[in-house]
Amino acid sequence: MRIPIEDLQIGDRTGADVFNWNGLLVVSAHTVLNAEDIEKLQRHNIDYIDVMIRFDGQAAPAVTAPASARALAQTAAYQEAVGGIKQLFQDIELQGSIQDEQVEQCFSPLARQMEQENDVVALLLTLNNKDDYTYQHSVQVGMISYYIAKWLGQSEDEALLAGKAGYLHDIGKSRIDKAILQKPSKLTDEEYGLIKQHPRFGYEMIEASGLNKALAFAALQHHERLDGTGYPSGLKGHEMHPVAKIVAVADIYSAMISQRVYQKKQGLLQVLKELHRMSFGQLDPQITQVFIRNMLPNFIGKKALLSSGEIGTIIMTHPTDFFRPLVQAGEDFINLAETPGLDIDEVYV
């Protein structure tokens, strides 16, 4: 349905990409609108947009003033962190090094916001709808790494270190031509070989900056796998740095739930299932299982778009088939664990 901009509400979901008069993408399709999105549409003089699903005030909690203020603060901290990592990419490319104070200044405000937010799924759904994949991805991996460390029982300082490691894990991509990073078609063998060098580039840059060794090892090893099938060195699990194992899980999750030039994003719940599969040999099983166990409760109460086209609310997870929950659609309760032909296509707030 086409909705005038002045009638939009926080929580409305776009049905199509929104472009301005100059052909610039303003808001992507399937975005759950927040206050910043609506303000951006107004700034670009958009009159109407296609809305797929309207916020109805019943299936999702009403947005109170304190919640709205918190959401705005989270969005501001997230965007500040995105701008910060973009600047760090530029600085390290030009100068060959960065300062710990710069990293602290860029990441810590976001960490303070994350400390107050327990619903990680809502946070990812709200913030996972922007452009600049490389920078958005760096921020998301920092966020997820921070949460994983906390869920593992690590101290705040250790969690901040893991978060910074995730934040900087792709810094080596600053040495790679943007035309290769953003290439929409299949990479040549030579281009892919260059991409696979970004962990070494990142390690060298962080080492040259004199930052904590854990940050350097996370950059170097986040594509390694426990069974030795990763790159750049084909390390086995016992050879990997503990922080790198955390960042590896966060990196895969963020990459798979994000829209990229060469790959569509996948649903948050489906990607958890893929991580579960990878925990049998490729990813650290304890880290992966802790991540999954702490993420699953956050799906309760979220809306779900089923493959049948029905829209419902996730009521509870199945005790044995965690990734096929019970969904209420209208007056009907659908047990996906007992409905093999039906899937959740997407989860949203």
CATH topology assignment of the largest domain:
Hypothetical protein af1432
The stretches of 5 or more residues where confidence is low (pLDDT under 50) are 57-67
The H/E string reads EEEEHEHHHHHHHHHHHHEEEEE
Indicate the CATH class of the largest domain.
Mainly Alpha
Number of continuous helical runs: 13
Number of domains: 3
Any guess at the CATH architecture of the largest domain? Orthogonal Bundle
Secondary-structure-based class equals alpha+beta
Characterize the overall form.
Answer: globular
Percent of residues in helical segments?
A: 40-55%
Main beta-sheet strand count, sense and barrel state: 5 strands, antiparallel
CATH homologous superfamily identity of the largest domain: Hypothetical protein af1432
Termini Cα gap = 19 Å
As a whole number of angstroms, the C-alpha radius of gyration is: 20 Å
Could you tell me the strand content as a percent range? 5-15%
Report the mean per-residue pLDDT as an integer: 89
Total count of strands: 10
Physical arrangement of strands within the biggest beta sheet: 9-8-7-6-10
